[in-house]
Amino acid sequence: MGPAGSGKGTVATRILDHFDMRHLSCGDFIRAHIRDNTDMGRQAREFTKKGELVPDDLIAKIMTEEIKKQHNQNWLLDGFPRTEKQAALLDSLDPPDSVIDLDVPFSVIVDRLTKRWIHAPSGRVYNLDFSPPKQPGLDDVTGELLTQREDDKPEVIKQRLQGYHAWESKLADYYSKQNKLHRFSGRETNVIWPVVYKYLAQHLPPKQEMKTYMK
Fold this sequence. Notes:
The protein contains eight helices and six strands. By secondary structure, it is α/β, with parallel strands linked by helices.
């Protein structure tokens, strides 16, 4: 759990480096459907371009399809579930053992996302502070123009964060009652990550010792 820009993708990548599991990213699946112009992708595009959340029933359809493919593998869900209804559906399919909640101030998130630019054809992501392109506005590999996702523009980000706050508290309460919610707070992913690793290593055998990541 965690709003867009809280570092879910980065933390997920590090978990996958250190622990044996499959990453199931709701955002990646939605973007793939949009990119492939599927029926579900066309429906999702109408909401994402306005900064609105994709409806529960569409999210559930996409994620149910993916979860059923896992065949008893360990998995890491990213961005799903986001409502009590979705959480109940997940419990009926394959209940999670633990829920990690990344708690990052909204002011930090707005600053991060407004400085994020992408090379749309490849998916390469740049941040003007932490990983800027070698030449401003151009992809390092192809030299093509970088673009900013519609949902990374300041006015859309604020709408997304407001929407997230509206449902996050209910979902947190849902998992708190099951004693599955574990919240990790901080302003930087490199501060949050070691605590997440320590927690997971108490329950899963790591593939390797924790790497140290520099700012």
